[in-house]
Design a protein that fits this description.
The structure is a homodimer of 207-residue chains.
Chain A lengths: L8 H16 L6 H8 L13 H24 L5 H18 L1 H9 L6 H27 L8 H13 L1 H4 L8 H15 L11 E3 L3
The structure holds a DNA duplex (30 and 30 nucleotides).
DNA sequence: GCAATGAATGAACGATCATTCATTAAGCCG
DNA sequence: CGGCTTAATGAATGATCGTTCATTCATTGC
C-alpha cells in the first residue's frame, strides 16, 4: 500500500452504488446512502461523478463493454455452431454467477436512464444478443438445430440463462461448474440437439 | 351507465398505479403521479388505500391469487405429464402476454415490499412454481423427460417463458397463438422430449 | 518551503416526497 | 326535504431528495 494511497474513492463509489442500486433499485437509493456506504459525505461524490444519472450510466456502459469484450474473448477460437453455443452458455452463466449485480442493473435500470444513454445501452445489448442469434442461425442453416423461430429462441435462451441470478448462491447445493453444465444441457436440448451424455440415449436427427 | 355512476375510483387507482409502477418502478412513482393519472388530487387516494405500500401489496397479492386460480383452472382436467406441461406453458405465456404489467411488478417489486407482505408473496410464488416442479418430477420419474436437475429446470423454464413480456407486442410479427406454440416447442425440447411435429423427426426415448 | 491541485466537508437550496386532516360536496334512503 | 355515508379537496406537515458551493485540508511537484 504505497501507491494505492491516493484515493480510490471513485471506485469505492462505483462499487457501493452498484450494490445499493442492485439491492434497492436506482430510484430508491439516495446519494446520501451511497456516500454513507463509501464513508464520505454526500457532496463528495460530485468530485467524481457529475450526477446520479451519470453514475448509473457509467456503471451500465462499463458493464456492457466489459461483458461484450469478455464474450468475444471466450468465443474467439471456437468454430462450429454446437461448440460455440456451448461456449456461449458457459460464458453467460458463468459471468452472471460472478457479477450478478452488474448484470441485474443493466437489465433492470434501462428505464431509469435518460433517452440518449438508454439508446446507447440498447445498442450494446443488441450487439450481445446478436452473437447468440448468429450462432443459432448458423446451426439451424446447417441442420444441427431444430428451432421454431430464431429471434424468439435467442431471447428465450438468454432469459432462461439470466434467470440463474435469481436462485444461484455461492455454497449452495449446486456449484458453479455443475450449474453451468445444467444450463448447457438444457440449452442444447432446447434447440433440439441432445448430447449423447451418458451414451445410453440418443436423438435421431434426420432420417 | 346507471349503476356504475358511483365511483369506481378504487379500481381506477389500481389500474393507473399498476401501469405507472410497471413503467417507472414503485419508488419512482409518486402518489401525486397516480392521482393525476386517475384525475383526482393526491389526498383522495387515501380514501381507498391506507398507504402507498398497501396499494402495492394489494396489486401484487391480487395478481398472484388470480394467477394461481387461473392456473388451477387451466390444468384441472389435464392428466398426463406431457399434456400438463404443454398446458402449463400455454397458460403461462398466454397470461403473461395478456397481463404484462401485473406480472412485471409481481416479479420486480418484491424488494419494495415490507417483510410481512413480501413473505406472503413469496409463498404464493412458491406455490405457483411448485405446480411446474411437480409436473417435471412426474414426467422425469416416468422416463418421459430428460432433466438434469428438476429444481433448476423449473426455474429455467419459468424464466424463459416470462421473458416473453420483454419482446412481445400486440400486432407484432408473431401472433399470440404462434408465440405460445413456439414456447411450447422450445420447452418440450428443453426437457428432452421432441414432439413429432412434422412427423419427419423423432426422438428415441429409451432403448 | 510554497504554490497548486484534488478531494472532502457541511451547510444550504428549492423541490418533491408520503401522509394527515378539517372542510366541502354529493349521492342514498327515509 | 333532511340526515347519513362516502368521497374529494387542498392546504399543511416534516422528512428527504439531488445538487451547489464556499471553505478546509492534505498531498504533490517544484
Amino acid at each position: 500500500m504505497l501507491k494505492t494511497k491516493r484515493s480510490d474513492t471513485r471506485n469505492d463509489v462505483r462499487r457501493e452504488a452498484l450494490r445499493l442500486f442492485s439491492e434497492n433499485g436506482y430510484a430508491a437509493v439516495s446519494m446520501r446512502d451511497i456516500a454513507e456506504a463509501v464513508g464520505i459525505r454526500q457532496g463528495g461524490i460530485y468530485n467524481h461523478f457529475a450526477s446520479k444519472q451519470d453514475l448509473l450510466a457509467d456503471l451500465m456502459t462499463g458493464h456492457m463493454e466489459t461483458l461484450i469484450e469478455a464474450l468475444n474473448e471466450a468465443l474467439s477460437d471456437v468454430a462450429n455452431p454446437v461448440a460455440r453455443l456451448q461456449a456461449f452458455v458457459r460464458f453467460h452463466v458463468g459471468y452472471h454467477i460472478d457479477k450478478p449485480d452488474d448484470v441485474f442493473i443493466a437489465y433492470m435500470e434501462l428505464r431509469s436512464l435518460e433517452p440518449d444513454h438508454r439508446e446507447r445501452l440498447h445498442t450494446l445489448r443488441d450487439r450481445y444478443e446478436g452473437v447468440l442469434r448468429d450462432i443459432l442461425t448458423e446451426g439451424a442453416v446447417h441442420g444441427l438445430f431444430r428451432i421454431p423461430d430464431v429471434a424468439v429462441q435467442t431471447r428465450a435462451i438468454i432469459a432462461m440463462m439470466t434467470g440463474v441470478t435469481v436462485w444461484y448462491r455461492e455454497g449452495g447445493r449446486l456449484g458453479r461448474r455443475d450449474t453451468m453444465e445444467s444450463y448447457v444441457q438444457m440449452t442444447m436440448q432446447s434447440v433440439g440437439l441432445i448430447e449423447p451424455a451418458g451414451g445410453e440415449r440418443q436423438c435421431s436427427i434426420k432420417p
